[in-house]
């Protein structure tokens, strides 16, 4: 629910009766996802600070594990696991690129 009276309340998907309600929910969820990505990229900055060398940034075993965990979570929730796998592939690759840039900024 929203604390701002000018902002329509966010209903759960099952409670939505209109497209306006759906859109409020989607827009709110998108803002929440960006906030979560902000936190995730903060962890990438921390990893760049902690890892001893640039070669340690790319870890293919860890990448595969992260993607597999997301796919399993999607399956458990009954959402399209193949779509989640594709999103996580892009997310992890983007995170690696970001972390490499952060690593370089702190050392080069």
From TrEMBL:
Chorismate mutase domain: residues covered: 13-103
Coiled coil: none
Protein name per Swiss-Prot or TrEMBL: chorismate mutase
Pfam families: CM_2
UniProt cross-references to PANTHER family, sorted A to Z: CHORISMATE MUTASE
Enzyme Commission number, as recorded: 5.4.99.5
InterPro entries per the UniProt record, alphabetical: Chorismate_II_sf, Chorismate_mutase-related, CM_dom_sf, CM_II_prokaryot, Isochorismate_pyruvate-lyase
Enzyme class: isomerase
Keywords: Isomerase
Organism: Erythrobacter insulae
GO molecular function: carbon-oxygen lyase activity; chorismate mutase activity
List of residues binding substrate: 23, 40, 51, 99
BP GO annotations: chorismate metabolic process; salicylic acid biosynthetic process
């Amino acid at each position: 629910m929203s604390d701002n009276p000018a902002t329509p309340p966010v209903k759960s998907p099952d409670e939505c009766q209109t497209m306006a309600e759906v859109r409020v929910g989607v827009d709110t969820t998108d803002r929440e996802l960006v906030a979560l990505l902000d936190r995730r990229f903060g962890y990438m900055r921390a990893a760049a600070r902690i890892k001893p060398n640039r070669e340690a940034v790319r870890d293919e075993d860890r990448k595969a594990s992260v993607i597999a965990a997301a796919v399993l979570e999607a399956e458990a929730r009954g959402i399209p696991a193949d779509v989640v796998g594709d999103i996580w592939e892009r997310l992890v690759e983007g995170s690696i690129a970001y972390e490499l840039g952060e690593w370089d900024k702190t050392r080069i």
